[in-house]
Amino acid sequence: MSLVYAPDSAVAIVADWAWRPNSGIVTRSTGQEIPMAKGWHILGAGAIGCLFADALASSGAPTTLVLRANTPSAPPLQMERNGQTHTRSLSSTNAPDVSPIDHLLVTTKAYDVVSSVNSVRHRLTADATIVLLANGLGYAEDVASLVPGANLYCGTTTEGAFRRAPWHICHAGRGQTLLGAFAGRASTPDWFDDWQALKLECRWTNTIHAALWHKLAINCAINPLTARHRCHNGELANNPVFARQVTELCKEIADVSRAAGFDDIAHSIKGDAFDVIQRTAANRSSMLQDTLAGRSTEIEFITGHLVNRAEQLDIEVPANRDLLEQIRNA
Ligand SMILES: NC(=O)c1ccc[n+]([C@@H]2O[C@H](COP(=O)([O-])OP(=O)(O)OC[C@H]3O[C@@H](n4cnc5c(N)ncnc54)[C@H](OP(=O)(O)O)[C@@H]3O)[C@@H](O)[C@H]2O)c1
């Protein structure tokens, strides 16, 4: 028998099974061994990584956190939701270790994706599955070159989580996670069956590139301006000067979207951006929080990516370019 924790309560319950980390095998108390959900390694054990690690482990998937070199193993994770906190013990490994990795979920910030995948490249099996779940665009192509044999998937999430303290994660807002194949249209992979059973809502899409571009477009219209003006999202609509800037950014974003083949997004971006601003009026964007805390921002993978794409398509985007420079130099 083993002790596990009911995911949505602080109450420990007794289970008649146990799993060996990374084995993909669950051993019942009778000694019977049964194949369980695929084992996942989580690279980027921050707010989103721990949220998914907790959900995967809760569903019975052998789940291992991948920590930087020379980092001590993770203490039990405190996961807080709706005012209740449960504890989850997860196994961990350091990136330079040698045990193989066949299913990798990457949840670092965008600017750490490529270097972090590189740090475990020697451990990836020949046909490893890699799911990239960071914000922004531009790093997946580099990962595809780095590990050409891998089955690469991308995702975007509206789940909200933050680190209250080291190894104490607060799941602040439920959302949805969209996943799809980097290569484009593809049948739903086997591993996704396990993800559909998670306590986090996950959906498969054959148009992940449009979903990622839509998220990028919204982020370009909101996040850098909130960081520039040090304001909550809602002020972008309430302050007429800021609202005109949102409109100007959206016009350029629409031009690039149309030229990049995303006509629907070009058509809807301004309305969608103001809709998000209204719905998240009280929020402080992650870019604002990073700027205030003196941390690196993901600007190069958000506005930076838009500006690069505009250059390739020979489109002028002066408002986005100015904003990019301002955030770079903030
Ligand atoms: N948090 C949210 O609510 C939310 C919502 C939607 C999307 N996102 C996106 O999800 C991504 C992750 O966000 P987050 O809030 O979870 O960030 P986070 O809390 O900063 O977590 C990132 C984690 O990655 C780790 N990491 C970086 N490089 C690594 C390496 N080479 N090896 C091992 N670990 C490494 C960091 O470790 P260190 O602390 O040691 O640097 C940190 O624990 C971002 O792209 C973000 O925009 C977040």
Automatic annotation (TrEMBL):
Catalyzed reactions: (R)-pantoate + NADP(+) = 2-dehydropantoate + NADPH + H(+)
Please, one GO biological process term?
pantothenate biosynthetic process
Q: Name one Pfam family in it.
A: ApbA_C
Q: Where do the Ketopantoate reductase C-terminal domain residues begin and end? A: 208-328
Q: Recorded E.C. number(s)?
A: 1.1.1.169
Report if keyword NADP is assigned. yes
Q: What job does the chain carry out?
A: Catalyzes the NADPH-dependent reduction of ketopantoate into pantoic acid.
What InterPro entries does this protein's entry cite? 6-PGluconate_DH-like_C_sf (IPR008927), 6PGD_dom2 (IPR013328), ApbA (IPR003710), Ketopantoate_reductase (IPR050838), KPA_reductase (IPR013752), KPR_N (IPR013332), NAD(P)-bd_dom_sf (IPR036291)
Q: Which GO MF terms are attached to this record?
A: 2-dehydropantoate 2-reductase activity; NADP binding
* Similarity comment: Belongs to the ketopantoate reductase family.
Going by the UniProt record, its keywords in alphabetical order are:
NADP, Oxidoreductase, Pantothenate biosynthesis
Stretches of Polar residues bias are at 81-93
What is the protein name stated in its UniProt record? 2-dehydropantoate 2-reductase
The Ketopantoate reductase N-terminal domain is annotated at 40-183
Q: Which domain of life is it from?
A: Bacteria
List, alphabetically, the GO terms of the cellular component aspect.
Answer: cytoplasm
- From which residue to which does any coiled coil extend? none
Q: In which pathway does it act?
A: Cofactor biosynthesis; (R)-pantothenate biosynthesis; (R)-pantoate from 3-methyl-2-oxobutanoate: step 2/2
Enzyme class at the top of the EC tree: oxidoreductase
Region (Disordered) residue ranges read: 73-93
